Amino acid sequence: MENKEILLAITELKSSIDKRFDTLEKQFDNRLDSVSEELYKIKKYLDTVEVQQSEDTRKIINKIEKELIILNHDVKFLAEKFGIHDMKLYGIERKLNTKC
């Protein structure tokens, strides 16, 4: 083979490789775009779930706070009925009974 033929073969091979790399690059870009889009959807979903969970958590905390306020009122009412000293004696007695 002459130098021209070798040079022509190399040029054709390079052209073929360039086309193949262009095709692979386009496929890679398409897949990367697809993955990026899916990640965006996942992030949006997680943000939505996170907001919902924080709202649910706030509702539960508010409910617990209201129940604690009611419980505190009940304890004060009982303290007035039984007397603070009687409640303290009852608490000590209960602790002693649970230790035995």
From TrEMBL:
It comes from the Bacteria. This is Uncharacterized protein. The lineage of its organism: Bacteria, Bacillati, Bacillota, Bacilli, Bacillales.
